Amino acid sequence: MKTTISTVLAVILFNIISIAQTNIDFKEENFKSKEDFDTAVKYLYTGGDYYDDGVDWYDKALENYLKAEELNPNNAELNFKIGICYYYANNNFKSLEFYKKAYKLDSLVSEIILYRIGQGYQFRLQFKKAIGYYNQFKKSYTGKDKKLWLGDADKRIQECNDGKDLIKNFVGGMVVNIQKVNSKYIDHSPVITADEKTLFFTSRRPTSDPKDVDEYGRSYEDIYIAHKNDNGIWGKAENIGSPINTKYHDATIAVSPDGKKLYIYVGRKNGGDIYLSEFKDSTWSIPSALPAPINTKYQETAISFSPDNKLVYFVSNRPNGIGEKDIWVADVTEKGKFKNPRVLSNKINTIYNERTVFIHPDGKTMYFSSEGHKTMGGFDIFKSTKDENGEWGEPVNIGYPVNTTGDDVGFVTSADNKRGYFSAIKLNSKGEQDIYMYVFPEKSEENDFIVIRGTVRDDNSKKPIAANITFTDTKSGEKISIKADPKTGEFLASVPKGKNYAININSDGYALYSESINPQSNSNKDFLLSMDMNSLGGCKPIVLENIWFDFDKANLKSKSFTELDELVKFIKDCDQYNIEIGGYTCNAGDKTYNYLLSKRRAQSVVDYLISKGIDNKRLTAKGYGPENPIADNTTHKGRIKNRRVEFKLVQ
Q1: Taking Cα atoms as reference points, which of 525, 528, 497 lies closest to residue 515?
Q2: Residues 609, 619: Cα–Cα separation, whole Å
Q3: Which of these, 28, 143, 174, 201, is most buried using a 10 Å CB contact count?
Q4: Can you tell me the distance from the alpha carbon of 487 to that of 506, in angstroms, rounded to the nearest whole number?
Q5: Between 34-52 and 76-88, two packed helices, what is the crossing angle to 10 degrees?
Q6: What does pTM read for this prediction?
Q7: β-bridge partners, 527
Q8: pLDDT digits over 130-149, tens only?
Q9: Cα distance between residue 66 and residue 89, in whole Å
Q10: Which domains does the chain carry?
């Protein structure tokens, strides 16, 4: 009797399970009422119409399919299509459960169902299961485009194997969702200023205008801005407004270190181009397209400049590349023109898509996103380092937890190498794609950069003035050029630490300003400068801070030439003035000898200026010896400061 009861219960349980896993067609007899059937079919057909219109409509298809699924949860084809919609509508994590259910209901629901289940497991980092399904798919698939599908499955299997290695070699650090910045909509493409206090990004969150939607009923992409407070906390993001944002899609791709130049992607014109808006007089200019050869009739989607602004890197799908979208580089002339575009080698570019590019302030580190190389799925972020010959090295996947099996793109770093910003879809995403901050592990590379802030003012009125500022490494001659804001006089730059910099400032109506710094001592703080410019009308003697001589000699050291070349440009622009070059010494040693030495040093400067084309009739060399000290001669530092060369305008 006991055995009979057990057998009956087993049969009943089997029948229940069988019924639960039976594919239920959309037929009236399978519904509780005709009303339920009519409602379910309406949603099914409406969803199908959207589905047939292509991937851009999958979110609308999903809305209707889910309502149909409430009334009939056990239809294989419906579950399969819901999985597809979730995968392509940026909610990949939910796709797997629907693929698996579709397969249980009908293992022949689609020729690619095994491939899709493999994708679902891969996205969840369950690589062993994913590989198993991909291999089953390869054995069973007999449909059209077999070579293409099997090749794609092989790539997926390789991604899973690479993913196992990347997770095994966990790089550490911490990935943080920036909750205050993100929304429940798509947020992506973060770019930051050098001081890491301003963040620009792109979002598809709704605006106050209900008409601000595209043909698919979704909000247009707009650019948003957020600021970090003194406690290091990002504030709520705000729409940057017009003229940057329009009634169409507008997206961030890069920002200058000082936050005054914002590069924007505009996809509605000329195949997709890169535009530039500049912050002047407290407002953003109307974005304008960059000229050829950056923009072409093809698509250009990303841009980044070398710190010396001599090279520009960008992404394009123009002909003569290596894959689909590739990273290219072009030269930037002194006048800001672009020339000689060439594609980077196949060491960087692959037969797949490269998507974003960012050149670190050190000029030798590149971060980019790629579907190729050793990726664990989708786009991964890679790092390449330039060698002494100027060649980019083999890309390295920056690893897990930054990279996962979805699209991880748009990686930019703070100047101090402590944090990176990127966009991705992760389990803790607030909505769809979110902006994340990666805090590098403490054992990462030491911070080699420092942010320099400053203000340029009129010496007499103390009012801010517009100016061009050049930082020149006195050893290598490498230059970093920036501009001070004309309304505030403020400027911001990111430069390598531990180097001597000659600073030269030029402004219309003012004498050349010279300064010398070594920002090593301010390793954990912004380096602060305040510069007061002398107007040409009442010009005081200007100390040339970056003129060097060997001890007790009058021969110019080569590292003086950078400053003197700036002086040459200034003198040529001020042809209404003559120039007096004055040499000075400290009070140590023989007074008569010091006068002679100071005169010889002044003459060396004059001789150099003449060699560069300055009329000798405009130049006078004078030696003042220990006269007019500008520092205390009783200290070593003071005596060094008093050994100087000055120039003075003479009418």
Answers
A1: 528
A2: 9
A3: 201
A4: 16
A5: 40
A6: 0.81
A7: 452
A8: 999 999 999 999 988 999 99
A9: 14
A10: 21-168 (1.25.40.10), 174-439 (2.120.10.30), 448-535 (2.60.40.2190), 541-651 (3.30.1330.60)
